[in-house]
Design a protein that fits this description.
CATH topology of the largest domain: Rossmann fold
Structural class: alpha/beta
Keywords: ATP-binding, Helicase, Hydrolase, Isomerase, Nucleotide-binding
CATH class of the largest domain: Alpha Beta
Number of strands: 24
Number of helices: 27
EC number: 5.6.2.4
GO molecular function: 3'-5' DNA helicase activity; ATP binding; DNA binding; hydrolase activity
Number of domains: 5
Shape: globular
Protein name: DNA 3'-5' helicase
Distance between the termini: 53 Å
Helix content: 40-55%
Strand order of the largest sheet: 2-3-4-5-1-8
Catalytic activity: Couples ATP hydrolysis with the unwinding of duplex DNA by translocating in the 3'-5' direction; ATP + H2O = ADP + phosphate + H(+)
Radius of gyration: 28 Å
Length: about 700
């Protein structure tokens, strides 16, 4: 088989093809692999813009576009398009190697020639040019080549530079934008080079060595190791697209750290992908005999991470080194092994009657006492009454005097003793106990721990994370976003013995959702300031996407039946457009509304299943959307009396601080649900819309 690489665009387009055309693509690639030595099945086009580009016949109506270097035996499957579009692509596009960065580039050369004529006529009437202050040698140092340089000298204002964005290679356009914004050449180079996987000296860049250029461009292409590998890639093209790394993400994932490291960023910026590649790097480079833990906070994400890791780590021995489990399962195992008895975890709602009874003489309801125990006492690891009397209760609203705190403490002791008698636990309590056991015994279960969705871990679970691995180089790698915090857990990592200062990186470009979806969704969050896990302020001011598409659709209805009928019509439209059923996600704020929605889809003949697994359209709660990704997303029931969900919001009169936190958490939850969408977002409500909707 030739050395074969698949471009990201090829996978994205392949995923959207109907099954008939996909099977034809599979057959064409098999034949190509069998006959590549004599050039079989590749057609050279006489008027191709780039003589190294060929077509691969798929069907009568479809062609693949293949970059076939003249030497080296490497082929890049660039894209698959309808017949006429493929030939137009070949007649317009040319590939090259960036002489400063060494990466593979493609430009719309026909479009540039047309634009050059337009710009020349405009420039005749203008004496000054946009880049008069930048000498040619500096532009060349930044990778702007001779063809682009001649066009650059015609630019008179930034609007013309913006018009070139879709025609120029991205790296060259980025260099010009940096200079136009006032950056020095040195500052522009720093911005460009930080995204390189490997920095190549100019004398090492061979303009004819496309294979080396492709290898320096892992954000756009992946090499196929053999027929089985190719089949695996095509079996899950949408999933594979999701594990591509941008060079900036790769530089974060594939390096050594002297201690705990963290990556943050808005929805779709690739934090989870970076974490997965971090695990792949650790599995390939370390084998001490102890496993690597890849963990998160829910079973839903646990399953999704495991599926993605199997795509990424193909070596069975390396995969065997990785334990993919949510943190509750890890904690449960530690406590069960130490006590010899399996703890019985209960939902908080199941425990409230017990806490009501235990706190009957305290003057506080059981729900308040239970929350105080988890959010203050367990969160701060308070062991004595004196500790509690002196503790700060940030985010818990109204002040409690010493006598009130003593009554709370006695009620908590009574309630936890009754829980112990019946072996009943909360998951937070199990995590706190597991952390204590590991600290007491000195056991360290893992060589490395990688945590996804870190912003939603309770402080007790952070203590467990710290206790699972010995302190040292590459011990912890954390990925999270405080703007997606959907549980009321606010922590300071440094206070928990996890110092990421100086080893924290922030991603600002979303590769999932379009700019139109992001711009709309960010407004859902409101204007409240956000503090990150490293105690520093965090904002989405520079959060953006290079992708563009349709604006989100927001529709209102008089009643729920009409709203769900419209949802059925929208889902059917997506499916008719060729969207795979399991690439459509539908979310509702409550479980009952999610079940009602699933039943309506079933009645309309639309197969569906749970969000994280199963077949058909995926349906579930907004909480269940966390960490998932879909081509099209519908969020239903975004009504004023459902979002925010009153049962989950503390009354303002009771606790104004907690009330504010709860409202922000509800905003974050809606934001998370909407930013699961890659191509299309549909939001609906019955009656008055949620006040969170822009």
């Amino acid at each position: 088989m030739p050395q074969l690489a698949i471009d990201k665009d090829f996978l994205q387009r392949y995923a959207k093809l109907d099954r008939r055309v996909q099977k034809a693509v599979d057959g064409a690639l098999d034949k190509f692999a069998d006959n590549h030595r004599n050039g079989g099945h590749l057609e050279k086009i006489a008027d191709a813009r780039d003589p190294r580009v060929r077509t691969l016949r798929i069907t009568k109506d479809y062609r693949g576009v293949v970059l076939a270097p003249e030497q080296g035996g490497t082929y890049l499957l660039v894209t698959v398009l309808p017949h006429d579009d493929a030939y137009a692509y070949i007649r317009n596009k040319r590939f090259s190697v960036n002489q400063a960065l060494g990466v593979l580039e493609v430009r719309d050369e026909a479009g540039l020639e047309t634009m050059s004529g337009v710009l020349a006529s405009v420039a005749e009437s203008t004496e000054t040019r946009l880049f008069d202050h930048v000498p040619d040698k500096h532009l060349l140092q930044l990778g702007v080549d001779e063809q682009v340089l001649s066009i650059v000298r015609l630019l008179t204002d930034e609007a013309h530079l913006d018009a070139l964005e879709t025609l120029l290679p991205p790296a060259q356009h980025n260099a010009l934008v940096a200079l136009a914004s006032g950056m020095t050449v040195e500052e522009a180079w720093e911005q460009l080079s930080r995204d390189l996987v490997e920095e190549a000296a100019p004398e090492e860049v061979d303009p004819d060595d496309l294979t080396a250029a492709i290898r320096r461009s892992p954000d756009r292409a992946v090499f196929v190791e053999g027929p089985d590998s190719l089949r695996d890639l095509l079996d899950a093209p949408f999933d594979l697209w999701r594990v591509f790394l941008h060079p900036q993400q790769r530089r974060i994932a594939y390096r050594d750290y002297t201690g705990p490291a963290m990556v943050t960023g808005g929805a779709g910026t690739g934090k989870t992908v970076t974490a997965l590649h971090r695990v792949a790097h650790l599995a390939a480079h370390y084998d001490s005999g102890q496993p690597i833990l890849l963990t998160t906070f829910t079973k839903t994400l646990d399953a999704a991470l495991r599926a993605q890791l199997e795509l990424l780590v193909t070596d069975p021995a390396q995969r065997e080194r990785v334990d993919v489990r949510n943190l509750d399962k890890v904690a449960y195992q530690v406590v069960a092994e130490d006590r010899g008895v399996r703890p019985d975890p209960c939902r908080v709602s199941e425990l409230e009657p017990l806490w009501d009874e235990a706190g009957a003489g305290s003057g506080f309801p059981g729900a308040f006492l239970l929350t105080e125990w988890e959010q203050v006492i367990l969160a701060q690891n308070l062991r004595t009454e004196r500790d509690y009397l002196e503790a700060r209760r940030r985010g818990r609203g109204g002040r409690l005097g010493p006598d009130q705190r003593r009554r709370v403490w006695r009620a908590v002791l009574a309630a936890t003793e009754r829980m112990a008698e019946t072996n009943r636990w909360t998951f937070t309590q199990i995590a706190a106990e597991a952390a204590d056991i590991l600290e007491r015994t000195g056991r360290r279960l893992y060589e490395h721990v990688v945590v996804d969705e870190a912003q939603d871990l309770h402080p007790a679970k952070w203590r467990l994370v710290r206790a699972l691995v010995a302190e040292g180089p590459d011990d912890l790698f954390l990925a999270g976003d405080p703007h997606q915090r959907i549980y009321d857990h606010r922590v300071s990592l440094s206070a928990l013995g996890i110092n990421v200062r100086g080893r924290s990186r922030r991603l600002t470009v979303s590769y999932r959702s379009t700019q139109e979806i992001l711009s709309w969704a960010v407004r859902v969050l409101g204007a409240a300031p956000v503090t990150g896990l490293d105690d520093l302020a965090d904002s989405l001011d520079t959060y953006s996407s290079p992708l563009h598409g349709h604006r989100p659709v927001v529709r209102g209805f008089t009643d729920r039946a009409a709203e769900l009928d419209a949802l059925v019509a929208q889902v059917e439209e997506w499916l008719d457009q060729g969207v795979e059923a399991d690439s459509v996600g539908v979310a509702a704020r409550t479980r009952s509304l999610a079940e009602e929605t699933a039943a309506r889809l079933t009645a309309a003949g639309i197969g569906n299943g749970p969000l994280a697994q199963g077949t058909g359209v995926r349906v579930g709660t907004m909480h269940g959307m966390k960490g998932l990704e879909f081509r099209c997303v519908a969020v239903v029931g975004v009504d004023a009396d459902v979002v925010p969900y009153a049962e989950q919001v503390t009354d303002r009169a009771e606790d104004p601080v907690a009330h504010g936190h709860d409202l922000q958490r509800e905003r974050n939850l809606l934001f998370v649900s909407c930013t699961r969408a890659r191509d299309a977002l549909y939001v609906s409500h019955s009656g008055e819309p949620s006040p969170f909707l822009p």
